[in-house]
Amino acid sequence: MEYFKGIEKAVYKGKDSNDAFSFKHYNASETIGNKTMEEWMPFAMSWWHTLASGSSDPFGSAAATRPWNGKEPLEASKMRVEAGFELMQKLGINYFCFHDRDLAPECKSLKETNEKLDIIIGLIEESMNKTGKKLLWATSSLFTNPRYMHGAATSPYADVFAIASAQTKKTMDIAKKLNAKGYVFWGGREGYETLLNTDMKRELEHLAYFLSMAVEYKEKIGFKGQFFIEPKPKEPTKHQYDFDAATTLEFLYHYKLDKYFELNLEVNHATLAGHTMQHEMQVARNHNKLGSVDINYGDTFLGWDTDMFLTNIYDAVFMMIEVIKNGGLKNGGFNFDAKVRRPSHTMEDLVYSYIAGMDTLAWGLRIADKIIRDGFFDKFIEERYSSYNSGIGAKIESKSTSFEELFDYAINLEEKGLPSGNQEMLEAKLNQFIYNN
Ligand code: XUL
Ligand code: CO
């Protein structure tokens, strides 16, 4: 069966094309700097938003028009596999990502759930072999089932910790079987609603132990993929422990887990944390932990995790600057953790939205490459700190001075006034890079 009826494989037709099913900027084989666009941007389809969720929201049921609507749950899961691989082929997307529970229906017992899951994994494996598509990362949903209402690895109830571990073990086995490039831990309910009922220190100890067991099991089964932690400050819980990049890194260093994990950063999560995505990426890059990206963006008027397909060119440029400076996303990729708006309910809308997201990032890559090659902003920043290149500044830079020496220097100093930060000039220059291209 054809799920995306009458839609051909999307091709690059250039920026003036009026064909909505074509790429205007994404030209997979075109070389930018030292890599092709496809190498810079290993795109991934998210199983949950694209195939599983159907656009339900807290005020209404699934509204998306999908060929599997009304089918028996396992049958619907099988159809989703076919549709997913067809979509990846038509878009030229090489990777996909899933939560265990996106793939197959959850049954009364873990045993029965795993049996159904294995049927779908078999079909996915077959389709991977046929098409060459790959698993970017897998994860366990440790937040959907009501048993996780108080958390999973941070639940106050030991049985819940045990079931979460069992579920994670199974998903890691699947990740190994499908040769996943990575495995993501997103602590959806690893946080709290109120400290009136929460022992924060104990919960963090449990979370760290859970992750260390995952590391141990990874080594035991010989799973070669990269582990990632995905920070998010809130939603669904009021306060999530992996708040942002800096908090998550501190947690990893504190529990001596840093060498086993990189970060999977998400644009909308940065917004919720009150940061730009560029801030989050630069924090990670400074620690050599920029691993993978969940690509989307948030509506600043709404203030929750709207997970929209990225169409904001400014975000794309800032992100791609970080990616180029990182030498690419070595162990990760760009996973479209993004969903169509509820009124965009047709199968065609899925294709339009992926094309919009892929094109925006590709356009961002072109501009970021020009900005870096031109060197205007890098030179400006270099110049701004040039007082540290000689005299007393060089002593500070080389950490070879003292408070006494600085006191003697400053006591007779005649302050000459400071140069401007020139922010508005720089913003205008950025616009020139974007719109003159
Ligand atoms: C939720 C979110 C998750 C993770 C994987 O906000 O981003 O989908 O990416 O669990
Ligand atoms: Co995400």
Automatic annotation (TrEMBL):
PROSITE patterns attached to this UniProt entry: XYLOSE_ISOMERASE (PS51415)
Gene Ontology MF: a single term: xylose isomerase activity
Catalytic activity: alpha-D-xylose = alpha-D-xylulofuranose
Swiss-Prot/TrEMBL cofactor(s): Mg(2+)
Family that this chain belongs to: Belongs to the xylose isomerase family.
Subunit comment: Homotetramer.
Protein name: Xylose isomerase
